[in-house]
Amino acid sequence: MEWVGSPKINQLWWDSSLWGRELKLNTCERSHLYCARVKISLTAVYSGTVRTYQDNMQFMLLFSRQGKLRLQKWYVALSDTQKKKISREVIQMVLARKPKMCSFLEWRDLKIVYKRYASLYFCCAVEDQENELITLEIIHRYVELLDKYFGSVCELDIIFNFEKAYYILDEFILGGEAQETSKKIVLKAIEQADMLQEEAEAPRSVLEEIGLT
Amino acid sequence: MSPSVCLQEMIRVIRGARTQGEERGVIQRECAAIRAQFRQADNGGRSHNLAKLLYVHMLGYPAHFGQMECVRLIASSKYSEKRIGYLGAMMLLDEKQDASLLITNSIKNDLSHSSQHVQSLALCTLACMGSAEMCRDLAPEIERLLKASNSYIKKKAALCAVHIVRKIPELGEMFTPSAHSLLSEKNHGVLHGAVILITELCERNPDNLKQFRKSVPELVQIMKNLVTSGYSPEHNVAGISDPFLQVRILRLLRILGRNNDAASDAMNDLLAQVATNTDSSKTAGSAVLYETVLTIMDIRSESGLRVLAVNILGRFLLNNDRNIRYISMTSLQKIVQTDHTAVQRHRGTIVDCLKDQDASVKRYAPSQRWHIDTILHVLVTAGGDVRDETVPNLIQLITAASELHCYTVHKLYRALISDIVQQSLVQVACWCIGEYGDLLLKGECEEITPMQVTEDDVLDALETVLQSHMSTPTSRGFALTAIMKLSTRITNNVDRIRSVVSIYGSCIDVELQQRAVEYNALFKKYDHMRAAVLERMPVIDRNSSGQTNGDPSVEPMKEFNQPKPVQGVLIQEPANQVCDLLDLLGDSNPPLLVTNDHTSTAPNSTNSTSSNVQDNLLDLLGGLEPTPAPSVTVFEKGGLSLKLQCDQQTETSTTVTFTASNSTQSDITGFNLQAAVPKSVQLQMKAPSGDLIPAQGCGTVTQTVLLSYTNKANLKMRVRLSYSSQGTACQDMVQIDSFPSPAWS
C-alpha cells in the first residue's frame, strides 16, 4: 500500500489568519467559505508559481473491438506488469463506451482521447492540461499516414506489418510529441528509410541464395 | 524463402490457432527456435527473428531473452538490423532494465553517424526511453545536433532535448541559447520542436520565463504569418494552416503572458485576430480556437477579449459535435471559478443545454414559487418550532430556484422589516439579503408589488438584527456576514459596512469578534480577493444526493462526464422537493427514500390520522433530509478522537468524512492524515479544513476522502495520523476494516 497525503494547500491559505481556525458556522456558511478558500487557493496557485508537467502523451494504444492489442507505444517508464494492467483497464473502459458518447474520458489523473476507425480503436493518454481536440487531430494524422502508406489501410495491414506501423509512428511522434507537421515530409522520410532497409537486406539474401554465406 | 515471409507466416499460423492452448504451443515452439537462432553465430535472419519475437511480445508473452539481441543488433552496421534493434529496445528495454545502459554507447556513436536515418533512430530511442544517466551522458551530443545544419535532425534533436529537460531539469541551461536561435528557422517541424522546448524550459525555471518573454513579438509574428498566409498544401488541415504549430505557439504565449502585463499586451491583438478569423467548422479550427480561449483567460487580457473568449465557449456549447460541447462545458466550469461575471450571461445557455436533455426540469417550474411561499408562511407562523436543519435546507432550495431569487429576497426582506422575532426566518432572510442584495436594490420584481429599497434601508435592517437583544448569536453571525457580502453588491455605502465590520472587531461575543476581524482583513490585506470571495455562492451540494429522481435525469449527465454537482443539483433538487411536498398533503411517513417512480408518493389517505398530519406539517422541512449518517469512532487516544462518517455510498464509491476532535486541555497542532488503501481501491483525499484542533472540544478538523472500488468487500483503509500534542510529536496508525452505511442506503 502506498501512503497518500492531503493535497498541498496553498501556503497563502495557511499563513493567512483568515482561515487558520475552524469557524463555528452552519453548513451553508461553511460551504460558502470553503468555496472562498478554494478560490483563494486557485488565485494564488495561478499567480506565478512554477508548475511541473509530465510528458504530454503518456502512451498510445491500438486495439480491436475484441480488445486485442495491435500496437502499444509507451512514452513513460513502466514495468511490463504495470503496462499490462493499464492496457487492460483502458481497453475495458473504452470498449464499454457507447457510440454516442464523446471521445474524451477522464481516468486517474490523465485524459484518454480515443477514436474508432473501422474495426480499430486508436487511443491516446494525455496529461490533464492537454488540448483534447488537437490530440484528436494527431490521431487522425497518424491514421492518414497509415492510409497513405498502405493504401486504404485495414486492420490486417497493421497486424501483418506491425513493425512498419511502429516505424511510421516513430517518424511522426517523438518522445510523445509530434515532430513533423507535414504529411508529405513524414511519408518521404519513411520511403527513404525503407529504401535503405532494402539495400541493406538485398545483397545478403542474394548471397545466401547462391550459397555464399 | 524470403525472411520477411517467415514473419508473416508465423503470424498467420498464430492467428489460425483455434484455442488459447494451441496458440501457446505454437508460440512456445517459435520462441524456442528464435532462442536457438540467437545463440548461433552471426546469421542473416537475426532481424527477422527479433521481429517475430516482438510480435509474440505484443500478444503478451514474455520476451526478455531478446533484450541482449536488441543490444547486438543496434551495434550492427546494417541499417535493417539497427532499425529493428532500436524498435526492440524501445519495446523490451525500459530505463528500469540494466541492459538499457548497454546501448548508450551505440546511441552515442549513431548520433554522429553519416546517415541521417541512423541518427534518427538513435534520437528516437533516446527520446522514448532514455534514462536519466543516458540523458546526462548524451546531452552534449544533442546540444551539438541542435546547431546542425539539417532540419530533419534538428527537429528531432529539439524533442530529444525536451525529454532530457523533463528527466533532468538542471540541464535546461545547456539548451537555452540554442532554443532561442531555433525560433528563426523557417521549417515548421523545427519550429514546432523549438516551441515545445522553450515551453518546457519556461515551465521548469522562472528565470527562463523572463528571458523568453523577449521573444513574444517574434512568436506573435510567426503566428500572424500562419494565420494570414494563403493556402499552403503541405501544412493545411481543413483550412487551417498547421494547427499543430498554432496550438503550441498559443500555449507558449499563455505561459509567457501569465501574470505579466507587458507580454499580455503584446499578444492582445493577435489573440483577437485568431479568435475572430479562425474557422471552427472542423475539429482543427476548433482546436486552435479552444487553445486561444484558454490563453485569453489565463493571461492579463482586456475584458473585451475575455468576453469574446467566453462567447466562443458559449458558441461551442451549441455545437453539433459532442466533443466540442464537452470541452466547452469543462472549460466553462474552470472559468466560473475565476471569472464569474463573464460566465453569468451564459448560465442561461448552460442550463438550456442541460434542460433539453432532461424533461423532468419542466415539471418543477410552476410549483417552486408556491413551495417557497408555503415554507415562508410556516416560518413566519411557527418559526420557533421548526428543526435546525430547516435553515440550511431552505437556503439550498432558494439557491436552486434561480428564477425566483428576486421574488424570494423581496419577500424575505419585507418579512424581516416587519418582525425579527422568528430566528429561523431572520437567519434565512439575512442570508438571502446578503446573497441577493443587488436584486433587492433593483426594485422591480414582476411577481410582487414594487417597493423602493435603498442601500441604507437594507443596511438598517441588517444592523437592527445585529443589535437587537432578541437576536441569537447565530442570527447575529448571519447578519454580520450578510452585511459583509453586501460590500460587493452595493455601490454607495461601502464605508458604512467597513465601519460596522471594524466596530464588531472588539465585540464581546467571540464568534462575532472573530468574524469581524477576518472580514476586516478581507477589506485590508486581501481586498484584491474580496470580490471573488464574496461573490454569489454556487448551488450547494447536499450530503444526501443519493436521492435521485430516476435514471433519465442522471443518464445524460454521464455524457458530459459528470459535471460538478452545481448543474446536477439544479435539475434534481427541485423535483425532490415537489414530491416531498405532495407527501405532506398525504400523510404517509416522511420519505427517507425517494423512489424512482415518484407518482407513487401522491397523496393516499389509508394511514391518515390527525397526529400524523400534524407531524408531517412540522416535519415538512425535516422530511427533506434523511437522518444523518451514523458516525463511528475509529481512533481514540489521549483525548484525540477520529470519527468516520460515510455519505453518498453507491455500489462502487463512497465519500468518507473524517472528523477529528480534541478533549485535552491544550490545542493539537500540525494535525495531518495520510491514508492507504489496497490496490483494488482508488483513493482521493480532499483538502482538510485545517490542521489545528482546538482544545476541550471547541472545534474539529474535518477531511473528506473519496473512495472508488470494484468490489465493496475489498474495501479497507489504513489511516496514519501525525500531530503535535502538548509539545510532543506523535504518530499513530489505525486500520479500518468496515465502513458504516448511511441510514438510507
Automatic annotation (TrEMBL), chain A:
Q: Primary place of residence?
A: membrane
What are the alphabetically sorted keywords of the record?
Coated pit, Cytoplasmic vesicle, Golgi apparatus, Membrane, Protein transport, Transport
Localization: Cytoplasmic vesicle membrane; Golgi apparatus; Membrane, Clathrin-coated pit
Gene Ontology molecular function, alphabetical: clathrin adaptor activity
One Pfam family name is Clat_adaptor_s
Report the record's Gene Ontology biological process terms.
intracellular protein transport
The annotated topology with respect to the bilayer is:
Peripheral membrane protein
Q: Name one GO cellular component term.
A: clathrin-coated pit
The UniProt entry, under InterPro entries, shows:
AP1_sigma, AP_complex_ssu, AP_mu_sigma_su, Clathrin_sm-chain_CS, Longin-like_dom_sf
Q: Residues in domain AP complex mu/sigma subunit?
A: 57-196
* Job of this protein: Subunit of clathrin-associated adaptor protein complex 1 that plays a role in protein sorting in the late-Golgi/trans-Golgi network (TGN) and/or endosomes. The AP complexes mediate both the recruitment of clathrin to membranes and the recognition of sorting signals within the cytosolic tails of transmembrane cargo molecules.
Q: How does it assemble?
A: Adaptor protein complex 1 (AP-1) is a heterotetramer composed of two large adaptins (gamma-type subunit AP1G1 and beta-type subunit AP1B1), a medium adaptin (mu-type subunit AP1M1 or AP1M2) and a small adaptin (sigma-type subunit AP1S1 or AP1S2 or AP1S3). Binds to MUC1.
- Output the PANTHER family linked to this UniProt entry: ADAPTOR COMPLEXES SMALL SUBUNIT FAMILY (PTHR11753)
Family affiliation: Belongs to the adaptor complexes small subunit family.
Q: What name has this protein been given in UniProt?
A: AP-1 complex subunit sigma-2
What's the source species for this entry? Astyanax mexicanus (Blind cave fish)
From TrEMBL, chain B:
Q: Which keywords does UniProt give here?
A: Cytoplasmic vesicle, Golgi apparatus, Membrane, Protein transport, Transport
Q: What is its main location?
A: membrane
GO term, biological process aspect, one:
vesicle-mediated transport
- Lyase as a keyword of this entry, yes or no, is no
Q: Does this UniProt record's set of keywords contain Membrane?
A: yes
Q: Per its UniProt record, what PROSITE patterns does this chain match? A: GAE (PS50180)
Name the source's superkingdom: Eukaryota
Q: Write out the annotated subcellular location.
A: Cytoplasmic vesicle membrane; Endomembrane system; Golgi apparatus
Looking up InterPro entries in the UniProt record yields:
Adaptor_Complx_Large_Subunit, AP1_complex_gsu, ARM-like, ARM-type_fold, Clathrin/coatomer_adapt-like_N, Clathrin_a/b/g-adaptin_app_Ig, Clathrin_app_Ig-like_sf, GAE_dom
Q: Where in the numbering of this chain does the GAE domain appear?
A: 627-740
Under the heading PANTHER family, the entry gives: ADAPTIN, ALPHA/GAMMA/EPSILON
Q: What is this protein called?
A: AP-1 complex subunit gamma
